[in-house]
Design goal:
16 helices
Length: 433
């Protein structure tokens, strides 16, 4: 599959393989379980009140990290557009994420607020590196190949993340059944160490082989000038109608995608899904996501990126409807089946909708200022991600029902679908610019 790809394209794809371990182990599973157990042990109140409150703090912590990224993204994007700067900023955020992920293994479990703080820093490192990673797509790929390369990145990210996840899950399961000399807390800590090592090891090809091709020449007082360029880019986004409409649509629908990714484990735990079942379901989801990310890439080539993205948005609307009926008072067996259905639906759409959004945007922006525009791409995506977790937390706390919180996310998908109607069909290349 890699035979027709360049060394730069393969190295770029491998970074998805590397960083997806963080998404799978830290964001989606282990950290959510670890934080919830730590927080619920320290909080007081009924079991349901404590669970809802812990989930709310988890959502608020994710939202805070997003706010910081929203502030930093455009500034970093304009700075990184200068030749020779993109890799520097990428490396800074990469190593921040890896070092603080490793640090999670050494924080006492009863210090749940400190755990949340360190997790927020890892999120900043992880998502900060993605700003520059996404922008490198224009440096390593031609316009006509972007859907394919972007989809392959997500696809191999999903399948690659299963390897460290299986290893981590083995430690967790052994600890749950009290097999071996370590506790459940120790299993969680080992998982953080494994994730950090995996992330670092498979980032090496990206660090060595991928280089900035497009950019602007260095100039005096470039930090000061970068702020004026932010304003100019904002003005240009308004002038580029297609870019602005796409970003507005993306603002809404990617919020729902990110929220479901971040809240999946804590939501499942809240409605009574057992830890082993949660981990197994999420592992299978990764295997489902691998072929479907590639399928989305092929579908985009045949039916158009816009039509394929619309199908992904519709799938997520169905996911929200399924979640609405997952009340904790239902039979546990029924809830487990419904959670499996929900997770498999997520697996079919998650990678495809992210990959094609990235490649569509990469085709409509000026290549020599990719970081600036991808900075705003991340603003629209990450700023939207403030709304989802807060909406989830607020609705859950107001109603006392986590399923109401998850189902409310459908509002964002519907809004995104409406705005996305005005995005031009990518099969008509002249309409994209």
């Amino acid at each position: 599959m890699f035979k027709k790809l360049s060394k730069e394209e393969v190295s770029w794809i491998l970074y998805d393989w590397a960083n997806s371990a963080y998404t799978m182990v830290v964001t989606s599973t282990i950290m959510g379980l670890y934080f919830l157990k730590s927080a619920t042990a320290a909080l007081t109140g009924s079991a349901e009140e404590v669970a809802v409150t812990a989930n709310a703090y988890w959502g608020f912590g994710n939202s805070f990290a997003t706010i910081v990224l929203v502030i930093l993204a455009p500034i970093l994007g304009t700075l990184a557009d200068y030749k020779g700067k993109k890799k520097l900023f990428f490396n800074c955020f990469l190593f921040t994420g890896i070092i603080f992920t490793l640090a999670l293994a050494f924080i006492p479990s009863h210090l749940w607020m400190l755990l949340l703080t360190i997790y927020v820093i890892t999120t900043l490192g992880f998502n900060g590196s993605l700003i520059f990673y996404d922008a490198f797509l224009v440096d390593i790929s031609k316009d006509e190949d972007m859907d394919k390369i972007s989809s392959m990145g997500y696809a191999f990210g999903y399948i690659g993340s299963t390897i460290p996840f299986i290893i981590c899950m083995l430690f967790v399961v052994l600890a749950m059944f009290e097999i071996g000399p370590f506790s459940l807390v120790m299993a969680y800590r080992i998982s953080f160490v494994i994730t950090a090592i995996w992330w670092l090891a498979f980032s090496i090809p990206m660090i060595k082989n991928v280089h900035q091709k497009y950019g602007i020449a260095p100039e005096e007082h470039y930090i000061r000038r970068s702020f004026s360029r932010i304003i100019n880019t904002l003005k240009e986004i308004k002038k580029h109608k297609n870019i602005f409409i796409f970003l507005l649509a993306y603002f809404f629908y990617i919020d729902g995608v990110d929220t479901i990714i971040k809240m999946a484990t804590s939501y499942g735990s809240t409605i009574g899904i057992g830890d082993i079942t949660l981990l197994t379901v999420l592992l299978v989801t990764q295997f489902v996501a691998f072929p479907f990310a590639l399928i989305y890439g092929n579908a985009a080539k045949k039916y158009g990126t816009k039509r394929t993205l619309y199908f992904g948005i519709f799938t997520y609307c169905v996911i929200c409807i399924v979640a609405f009926f997952m009340s904790p008072d239902k039979d546990k067996g029924t809830l487990t089946i419904m959670f499996w259905v929900l997770a498999m639906l997520v697996g079919t759409a998650q990678g495809g909708i992210q990959a094609l959004s990235r490649s569509y945007f990469g085709r409509i922006i000026p290549k020599d200022r990719a970081n600036e525009f991808f900075g705003f791409y991340n603003i629209f995506g990450k700023f939207a991600a403030i709304i989802g977790p807060v909406l989830f937390g607020a609705i859950s706390m107001a109603t006392g029902k986590a399923n109401y919180g998850v189902s409310s996310i459908i509002i964002l998908f519907i809004a995104g679908a409406i705005v996305f109607y005005f995005v031009p069909d990518d099969r008509k290349q002249n309409d994209l610019q």
